[in-house]
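pasting for ref. prot 1 ->
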Amino acid sequence: MKRNKTLRLALPRLINYLLFCGGAFLLGSGLALETRLPPGSRGGHGLSMLGMTRHEWGELHFYVGLAMAALVLLHLALHWGWLKNALKSATAKLGYVGLAIGLIIFLIPLILPITQK
């Protein structure tokens, strides 16, 4: 019984720690991509940081972002009971509005038309 309780407490802590570290990495790598490794058209051709080019950093940034999305889903699954209770409360409409806004923000880049100049 005690082992299950320890695991039940340790897993969310580990996930929160990984989410924090992943968020810090995404912030740092995003800033590095924008400021220290500009695209070649802005003079960044041939630059690298820690032996990785802008494209390699972008790829790492993308995959860490996917891992973060998976961790967020796991975090929500672990707190599903709390989430259900929160959406039953008097302020549930606000929660549903928040969920809808999040879904819209997620879907917009996927449904916007692609054009070529």
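and prot 2 ->
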Amino acid sequence: MDGPDLEHFFSPSNWHVARRGPRYAQLSRYMAAAIREGRLAGNVQLPPERDLARLADVSRVTVRKAIAELVAQELVDQRQGSGSYVRNPPARALVADPGVLTSFSDYMRALGYRPRTVILSSGISLPRPDEVFALGLSSSQKVARLERLRFADDKPVVIEQNCLPAEFLPDPSQSGESIHEWLSANGHAPARAMRRIGAAALSAREAERLGVAEGTAVLRAEFTSFLESGRAVEFTRGLYLSDVFEFFMELRT
């Protein structure tokens, strides 16, 4: 992006709204959205401070504060003697609404990604205590269990552990790309789900699978899906890369 493109991109008409907060905050939010959406590409140097100030029609102090916000969000790196660079790879955020029940595959397609799943392990066994509780089973009822690595395009973004009553998935290896779609195709479409979201740090094994450093902070989500009848049909635990995944929820009074 250069010349007229930069002039247009940083034009105040694209990002500044009167009485909507400080200019540095508005400029920072605008640039952050552009980085996450890929409009400001990764590993690209931003214009010098004085040029940004001219393009955005703001003071250099405003630019400095906006860039500091982006650095704090780990979207921009400041390199001594070199300038400011969009981080590489840029984080194109995958924003998930916990209040909407949809499959990972459908959600990725809706965002323009190509979903892919690698089954790390699968089998039939007796449930663990947390699975007994989540699925409303007895300890003697068998379950189908899978561990899967989920991809957005070619980037691994989620490690999932799925557990279902074996009657719904007699052969876990036949679940295909999406368990949700497999259940729906076989007359067991989930109607609602309960989800719990927290934080976790990756073990060495988990980090290797996701291609990041051991101890990387991730989002941890557990959810139980239910049929229309109220019966629990799936219990899933997932570790989501927090630099590319966000969860969005709307709160009302």
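The chain has a mean pLDDT of 85.
The first helix runs from residue 4 to 9.
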